[in-house]
């Protein structure tokens, strides 16, 4: 059965090439319009208890969208390095919608003389 199908495809190969050539542009156009929203709000109904627990967690610890920024230094605990990192963090916090959760912010909360 399969060999007969392949024989037909080989026999009429140019017809299949033309058919694919005609179908590919419109199908590619519509495929590019397909969007995906895999956010948790689309996957779980709002009345679900786990969903509300997740919302409470996000209020405390922040949302799922994040960026990781790393700094490299010979001595990462040097006061000058920590001050430069803190300065960069403070500059990022000036951007609307940006929040921070970093080691320097924890250090600043624990040691009042840090900032």
Please give a structural write-up.
This protein is an all-alpha fold. It has three domains: 2-32; 36-65, no CATH class; 67-115, no CATH class. The chain contains six helices and no strands. It is elongated.
Distance separating the two termini: 77 Å
Q: What is the arithmetic mean of pLDDT?
A: 84
Helix and strand sequence: HHHHHH
Radius of gyration: 28 Å
The percentage helix is 55-70%
Keywords, separated by commas or semicolons:
single chain; 115 residues; mainly alpha; 3 domains; 6 helices
Quick description:
This protein is mainly alpha-helical. The protein contains six helices and no strands.
Write the layout of secondary structure elements.
Elements: H1 2-11, H2 13-32, H3 40-43, H4 49-61, H5 79-93, H6 103-110
């Amino acid at each position: 059965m399969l060999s007969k199908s392949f024989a037909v495809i080989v026999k009429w190969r140019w017809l299949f090439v033309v058919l694919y050539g005609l179908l590919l542009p419109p199908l590619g156009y519509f495929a590019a319009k397909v969007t995906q929203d895999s956010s948790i709000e689309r996957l779980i109904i709002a009345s679900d208890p786990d969903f509300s627990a997740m919302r409470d967690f996000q209020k405390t610890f922040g949302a799922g969208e994040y960026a990781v920024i790393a700094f490299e230094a010979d001595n990462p605990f040097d006061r000058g390095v920590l001050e430069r990192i803190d300065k960069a963090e403070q500059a990022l916090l000036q951007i609307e919608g940006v929040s921070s959760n970093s080691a320097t912010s924890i250090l600043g909360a624990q040691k009042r003389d840090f900032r």
